[in-house]
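Changelog note: in this version the structure field was regenerated for every chain. One regenerated record is shown below for reference.
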Amino acid sequence: MTQPAPRARQIVIHHDDIAANHATNVAFVELFDLGLVTSGSVMVPCPWFPEIAEIARRRPDLDLGVHLTLNAEFAPYRWRPLTGVSDNGLTDTDGYMWRDVSSARHANLNAVEAEMRSQIDTALAAGIDVTHLDSHMGTIAMPEYVDIYVRLGAEYRLPIFLVRDVVGFAAAAAHGPDIAARYAAIFDGVVKRGNPAFTSFVTSPWGNTGDLDTAYRRILGSTAPGLNWGAFHFDMSGAIEAYSPADARMRIDEYQFFRAGRARALMDEMGIEPVGMRAFRDRMRA
C-alpha cells in the first residue's frame, strides 16, 4: 500500500525538563501514549531521573533523549553536576549549577565536556535507549560550547537539536555579531552527516495569561515549511507550584491544552505533521 506523502510542515512535539519532578514524568508518558507528544528529553542530574529511567527500561518504545544540563534555574530547588563540585566553573558559590545561561558560559571546557559525557553515559547505563541530544536553556549550544555539543552528537551517533534560523532560537540569538554565520556553517556540517535539518524553533507561551487557543494558534502558525522543533514544558499540578510559581500556571495549562487534543486539532487544521526523533536517529545510524 502506498504510504501518504509527508506534509509540507513537520514538527517534533518535544517535552523538555523530564525528570525535574514526578508530575512531569507522568505527564510525558501519558501524552506520549495518547500520541500528543512525539519526543522528550531527561535532565540526568535531577532527583527524579531514576524514576523516568525505570519507566524507560519497561517502555523501550518511549522516544527519550538527554536534555544536556548546565543550569539549575529555580531558587528553592537546585541540582549539582554529576562530576562533582570543584573550582572548574560548573557551579556557583553554593555548589549548584548556575541559575542563568550567561553565568554558565564561563566554565572550563574540559569540565563541561566531562559533565556532558557523564550525563549521556549515565542515561545509557540506566537503560534509556537515547534517541537524541538537546540542551536545557540552550547553554550547551552557546558559542563557547557548541563544538563540544557537535562532537558528542557525532561520537554517540545521535542527532542533536540545532536550528537553521538561529535568530529565531531565543537561547542562541544576540550572543555576538558573528553568531549567525558561525551557526550556519555548523548547521550545514551536522546536516551533511545526517542530522535532521530543523528549519525553525517554537516554544511554550511563557507568561501567557490570555486565550490558549489564540496563543497556540500563533505558535504553531509560526512554524516554517520543513522540519520544526517545538520545545514545550508539560506539567501536572502538585510539584511545580512549589518551586516555580511564576511558570506553574503556564506549564499546567499547556499540559491540559495538549491533553484535551486542542493542539492536535490546530495542527490538523494547519496541515502540520507531528514526528518523533527515533526515526531520525535510526536513519543516521543506517
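Spot check on this record: Residues 9-285 form a domain with the TIM Barrel fold (CATH 3.20.20.370). The radius of gyration is 18 Å.
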